[in-house]
Design brief:
This is Xylulokinase. Residues 3-252 form the Carbohydrate kinase FGGY N-terminal domain. The chain is of the alpha+beta class. It has 2 domains: 3-244, Nucleotidyltransferase, domain 5 (2-Layer Sandwich), CATH 3.30.420.40; 308-442 and 478-513, 2-Layer Sandwich (Nucleotidyltransferase, domain 5). Strand 21, helix 15 and strand 22 (440-443) form a beta-alpha-beta unit. The termini are far apart.
Amino acid sequence: MEYVIGVDIGTQSTKALLVDRNGAIVAQHASSYQPDTPRPLWAEQQASVWFDAVTACIAQVTAHAKEQGIDAASIKAVCISSLYGGSGIPVGADMAPLYPCLIWMDRRATAEVEWVRSHVDMDRLRAITGNGVDSYYGYTKMLWLRGNESDVWAATRFFLPPNAYVIYRLTGEVAVDHCSAGNIGGVYDIARRGWSGEMLDTLGIERTKMPQRLVDSTDVVGTLLPQAAQRLGLDAGTAIVAGGIDAAVATFAAGVTQTGQHVAMIGTSMCWGYVNQHVDASHGLVAMPHVFNGQNDLYVFGGASTAGASVAWFRDQFCRDQIEAAKATSHRDAHRLLEDAAARVPAGSDGVMFLPYLMGERSPVWDAKASGAFVGLNLFDTRAHLYRAVLEGVAFALQHNIEAGRKGAERLDERLIVVGGAAHSDLWMQIIADVTGYPVYTIEQDVEAAMGAALLAALGAGLVSREAAQRGWITLVERATPDASRRALYAERFGIYADLYPALRPLMHRLRNA
């Protein structure tokens, strides 16, 4: 039997998965960490944290494989997906990191956004790149480095996405997959599938800082170096496949390869995306080449900056007693206790509403100064009301993106697939079904992006056909169907949700500027 390894570098953890050529899971391992947040609205990570997590996870699954009698020669390929690395990792001439990576949730580049709006033809930028301007995008974070870390900027040889940096460390080869390149925005010509010399010149970003080798997500970038092979428990010469952005890879894992299929990935953040052949920047969505059939298909998505992060924030700040109480239970999960209480609160949380803008907001709001809010509180409300309101607020953010996506999508399937940590919650899946009106399906296997990376590895190594890859390795299960009465209530409440941000925006900005 032949095997592959899929690795997903996430915002808060890295996961590795060893599967056979039919997708059966043999071993898996995860390593946790947290991004650094040295100032409000800043979020960055040291490249070494990701590399160490990747190597530790791969070494653990290969050691487990050895215990089962699987030799290293049977493991034919490794593929690495990663979080959206924003600016990418600036590396010098010796390929050593010069500065932390400003990740997707970092919002420091607000002045650079205003500079772009004032100095760049926005219609031309959208026409070339299929994307807009916001501090979310990597090219605005690069401009921040140019303006605020001039020594780093001058010494930077390349900006490398997280997966590209790790692959370089493993193979000695420098390459960027088209999916990750497109997600940088601003500097990638989405029609030509290459860097845009015009936009790089307009923005004042040297063309030489962008790696010239661009590859498909299924391409073999290089083979494993001997020194890396020894550390990982793999054979030197093992194929290393390019991979891509985790949201697109998780979408691929869910079997989404056809126009109109759509998935919500709800982890730390939320990404809702669909497959299309046309960009949708005019409606505030992001576009990049998909990880499957990427020379033709696009992954078009919108997202909320803090989805699961909103839930974790509420739990950690206001539910200490629930956390302690959970330790005495068999499942040891405070969320179970919180959801049991929230499930007894009526849909709509008795008029309490939550705006999940705890790190500004991405699409379709695109406002780094947006802030979170509870609205509609009174003395009757309990912690359970607020917890349910947080779940509903993220579901409304999802619906906000779906409404924007409908304006540009050729069509959307009549079911919604949800992947990520939120899929563990029956209550949340039901809320999402009731808010969106879609039957909700989840993946039976709890692996998502790592499984998608493994499937890309198998495809890149020639172990599966494109037809088999299109069918995928996972099993979808129906988790929730919309309830008509709750759907009607949530449709009314969504109108209030959509009106709250523009009403509160001036006050949010005044508070940020105070």
